[in-house]
Amino acid sequence: MPQDKVKENSGNLGLWAALASLGYMFWCLGGMEMVERLAFYGLRSLVMLYAVIPSAEGGLGITVARLGVILAVWSALQGFLPFFIGGLADKYGYKLMMGVSTLLKTASFVMMIFCHDFWSFLVSVVVLAVGTSFWVPSVQGAVAKATNPENSSLGWGLFYQAVNLGAFLSPLVAGYLRKMSWDYVFLACAIVGSVNLLILLTYKEPGREEREQLKAENEKKRQGFGALLKNGAEVIKDPKMYLFLFIFSGFYLLYSYMFDILPLHINDWVNSTDIVNTLTSWHIDVKNKIISFIMVLDKTGSFVQPEGMLNINCAIIMTVCFIFAYLSSKMKILHSISLGFVFVAASMALLGVSHMGWICALAVVVFTLGEMFSNVKFSEFVGNYLAPDDKKATYLGIAQVSYAVSATLEGYFGPFIYEIFSSKDTFARKLLGEAYNMNADQLEAIPPGEAFERLTEVSGISADVLTRQMYSDFAVANVWFFFGAIGLLTALAMFAYSVWYGRHAGDKAVKTGEPAEAAASEADSKRDAEDFKVAPETAEAQKETGAEVKADKGAVGTAEADGGTDKAKGGGEESKK
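and the corresponding structure tokens:
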């Protein structure tokens, strides 16, 4: 389906009609996603801080570089495994895969209660990553099945809203629990995550009969693991797919850096006392337990903790994402994504402008706008407009490669970049050695994360004044400007892709958004994406043109290969993307 037609179909239903068209199974999936994210982000939003906090204070007590190893392994497994697991979900069922995922993730959280060194914690993270890799393509495949072209934009927006409802609540609870003990955080994640086992009992998988029939046919043809690899290779070779994923990986690079490194940046450099002071001047009692809990203030109530600052992102998405999803449905989907990338680039630049709390909060707001215009549309574009009906989870699983590559690279190199160009601990050690003549042995004896405190002691300068001086002297802002430039280039690349897609792929490639039955009916015709063979006529076109379309299919393929525009005798022209 050409992009203009996608836009037209998305707007056929009004906001309330589209809401009413979403059935029980969709809302059941949204509820399970909220619970899963509530458990997952309870850990993910705080793992950076937990890793670098000294062991004497209850943290893991490792260096930022070793944290990078954990993040890289985590992202690689969580991102690359869905390449295979998506096909398993299509074959054996979404419900089964979600059940396996829930068991694995619950086990991983329990393991973390007893894992307080680098290697044991890494093992528990591996179990969590494997469990998550089962979840993502399965639940997204089920959502794609539960929506249609008329309500998909709103449906995916609401699903993303459910994601962020869980992601919003989790730092509030985890931020409160970690003040008592980190073990309470892990225990709470395990209890919350296991709730999905109960919800799954009420979930009836859509299209189960068709899947069972297809599974039986595939078993007769002996299509096993090798067939999954072959199908994955065919999908990833499609230029529409690999170009889209390659460009979107630029967004995921910034997305990963934002959520992995910004908590460290806030903890080191951002002075959020200005936010507390402003609210106090507006006669808002920030000492109130409810307000303090929502803002995730520290024990003294004088500044916002990093998880509270990042939670602005989830708070906005969980309240208004469906509105932005409806608004973006009136745009061409690739134009919406391009606009979102522009907002993301601007947010990165804002983070480099100042270390003031309000500027950081504004940057998070701008980033959130970009995320709602772009990331929300990613799964919709792949699941509803690229994937055939019998391969929803396969396509969505393979699409995770985009995230996997970027998040793995960022997970490993991001902390290194931060440690070299932005880490307060690194700069404090440098000053202790250069300005206060500490030798290598003395610096080595200072535990990770405690160098700045030692610097304030020996220098006699207050922490606030010293932080401002170091922020300026070491040009901490330059890293954020660098990532802002990457964001701008990504936005330009996505806009260029939308032009190419509309002029080239829209006429000659498989039409995105066509009913899945059309693609499935030609599953045995050896469709090769690299030579841009024309897709079979849609079921709708076949109904309109009858036997005449079938008789002229060969002529249609020749006409399109030569750049012709007539699709079938008596058939109407399809609008270009």
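(Above: one complete record from the training split.) Residues 478-508 form the longest helix (31 residues).
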